[in-house]
Amino acid sequence: MKITVCELPNEADDLAGAWPQLVEHVGQHRSDLLLLPEMPFYRWLSQTDDVIPEEWERAVQAHDEWIGRLGDLAPATVVSSRPVVDGGKRHNVGFFWESDNGAVDVHAKHYLPDESGFWEASWYQRGNGDFSVADTSKGRIGFLICTELWFSSHARDYGQLGAHIIVCPRATPTTTAPKWLAGGQTAAVVSGTFCLSSNLTGTTSEGGDFAGVGWIVEPEEGKVLGQTSSENPFLTVEVDLAEAERAKTTYPRYVQE
Fold first, then answer.
1. SS3 label, residue 102
2. Is residue 113 part of a domain?
3. Chain Cα centroid distance, residue 130
4. Residue 189 contacts residue 207 (beta carbons within 8 Å)
5. Residue 170 belongs to domain spanning
6. H or E element: which one contains 234?
7. pTM, whole model, 2 decimals?
8. Using the 8-state DSSP alphabet, how is residue 138 labeled?
9. pLDDT tens-digit series, residues 105-161
10. In this structure, is residue 255 part of a structural domain?
11. Sign of the C-alpha dihedral, residues 219, 224, 230, 232?
12. Do 149 and 184 meet the contact criterion of CB atoms below 8 Å apart?
């Protein structure tokens, strides 16, 4: 199957300009699965600790509208996260979209930073800690949304649950790009899964910036199969999910706890 990762602009006008290019890339490469960055369809609200609930509601509406456009990318399965309001609580929820069933919510982000540029615990509530595998038409997928990548026990759990792919939609800054890639390589080796990440790119009105640098890592040795860049913001790699099945039978995946 063909997997696509990307980097997309944080600002709405720039995203609108990049979207047709992404649609063209996915169509030309006949992508089976596309990973988008973390909450990609509205400007990054957690840049400031000035929490405005109405802004969150506008972000929810924007994501709902953009999800209505994911048919542009069919028949690819599209994976990302989105802001929601559930029972009066705000959450950042990982989902997958397929043309037959629309968007299916899977996992609410549980580990939330709260610091300059990333006031996430201030803006929304953590999920309930459910790290279930999503059964999609393109394989079994586990979610580690951004910061969750650093809680590697969940990566191992996903491997034991039979995941083929771990997705890490991100919103991370330029200065930290190398360590995020290292984290993705570790997650792949620990779990025996392909590890994918897509990230925001560009600056924010408050002075922050995002790194881009999406990547695809293979499941056995953690080799990087490719990365995105500002010159090449979309990356498609053909993989065999059987490699994830085989990797789980080899070191260190088979070692009993």
1. strand
2. yes
3. 17
4. no
5. 2-247
6. strand 234-238
7. 0.97
8. T
9. 999 999 999 999 999 999 999 999 999 999 999 999 999 999 999 999 999 999 999
10. no
11. negative
12. yes
